[in-house]
């Protein structure tokens, strides 16, 4: 229990101070060593709603596994890769530094993408599914014709994506326009262009829907709009486009 | 001029199909696994097979038929379609469905009820020669399957230098020829596209292959697949076929 509490703590310096008398596990010692070199240890962010709060659009079982298992695994492996990177940099071991890039992109991307995804969802009683108003609503009409046209485009691109990945609504800060893009696996949106800011990301990995929708990804895509948190997307849009 | 004729023929074919319904290409039927859908219980559930074979595999077959009918690919073998439509990595629309039909046909045959254990005979000798030991092979194969980012496949294949094809520009990790190798491939890609490989064994590591039975625990699925499902008989007979093909070319 102590080890778990230690791990979930953001600053290990504080942990080491508070629990100095307790024996530290190997993992904790390693994490403490990381901290002593100034490495940030990433932890699983809390959700703003209960696992079951998005039902019936997304089942509580899916949400729990997705958050506690999948997202946690990306974070664990991201921390591990960063630790190895730190050691490789310290030893000027360039081939290891380069070799680690794939793991960093995949696991770091998994952490970034899922952190956004949780913010993109909200229970219906907290405004989930309510179409965007204000400047984002107008921008969607301008760039896609209508809100429904945007949904059709995201659904079509999400359904056509081969294998695992994400479909995004993004803002191109340079061209000042909205774009729909897909990325493979855990590539974050920024891999499609340095000026792209994600407003909304829809996870189309099978783990995001399989227990409930099985092979029918289009039904998952159709239903997820009922729990999309457009307030969050609007806030990001207003901040980034001003 | 020729282009116009081809276009006209395509149009004509389309018109015919619209009147008669799509032609059935007998080559691309949904082949059932060589065992009943509940035969791999409790390791791989009947429900998994019902969806994986009965929905995913079936959809690949149906979509491939629609994509191929009336095109220049009509009448080609599945293998020819895979190699042509891979197009040196710049993949054309039928590739994903064609390769996934082939991959799943191959995958079902890689398993049998009461499978697992160790291979024997020449296969075991080659595994020991090329990986050091069966345990080392197991570790390498499991690691490849576990670390394939996203959806895809891990393979045991025979790599031969004699065989070559158009797409063989960038085979992954081409260290040595004429030996057994473990490789992995993303999404629908399989070793046929690189020309120089004869696939012997594969494991599907798309999440749909294991999610109903193992959820996020891909490593558990991989272990159980190797311990209780692999049909080493099938792998051995493929090695025989590969050798026959290599010596005949
Ligand atoms: Fe996910
Ligand atoms: Fe599959």
From TrEMBL, chain A:
Function (record text): Destroys superoxide anion radicals which are normally produced within the cells and which are toxic to biological systems.
Organism the protein comes from: Cajanus cajan (Pigeon pea)
Cofactors (names): Mn(2+)
Family per record: Belongs to the iron/manganese superoxide dismutase family.
EC number: 1.15.1.1
UniProt-annotated binding residues for Mn(2+): 66, 114, 203, 207
GO cellular component, one term: mitochondrial matrix
Manganese/iron superoxide dismutase C-terminal domain boundaries: 132-235
Keyword Transferase assigned: no
Subunit structure, as described in the record: Homotetramer.
Entry keyword Mitochondrion: yes
Keyword tags: Manganese, Metal-binding, Mitochondrion, Oxidoreductase
Protein name (record): Superoxide dismutase
Record GO terms (molecular function): manganese ion binding; superoxide dismutase activity
EC main group: oxidoreductase
Coarse class of the protein's main subcellular location: mitochondrion
TrEMBL record, chain B:
Chief location: plastid
Signal sequence extent: 1-18
InterPro entries, per the entry: Mn/Fe_SOD (IPR001189), Mn/Fe_SOD_BS (IPR019833), Mn/Fe_SOD_C (IPR019832), Mn/Fe_SOD_N (IPR019831), Mn/Fe_SOD_N_sf (IPR036324), SOD_C_sf (IPR036314)
Record keywords, A-Z: Chloroplast, Iron, Metal-binding, Oxidoreductase, Plastid, Signal
Domain Manganese/iron superoxide dismutase N-terminal: 27-112
Catalytic activity: 2 superoxide + 2 H(+) = H2O2 + O2
Biological processes, Gene Ontology terms: circadian rhythm; response to cadmium ion; response to copper ion; response to light intensity; response to ozone
GO molecular function ontology, one term from the record: metal ion binding
Lineage: Eukaryota, Viridiplantae, Streptophyta, Embryophyta, Tracheophyta
Record EC number: 1.15.1.1
Keyword Iron set for record: yes
Occurrences of domain Manganese/iron superoxide dismutase C-terminal (ranges): 119-238
Subcellular location as annotated: Plastid, Chloroplast
Residues reported to bind Mn(2+): 52, 104, 204, 208
Protein name as it appears in the record: Superoxide dismutase
Family, similarity comment: Belongs to the iron/manganese superoxide dismutase family.
Top-rank lineage group of the source organism: Eukaryota
Role of this protein: Destroys radicals which are normally produced within the cells and which are toxic to biological systems.
Cellular component terms per the entry's GO annotation: chloroplast nucleoid
Cofactor entry: Fe cation
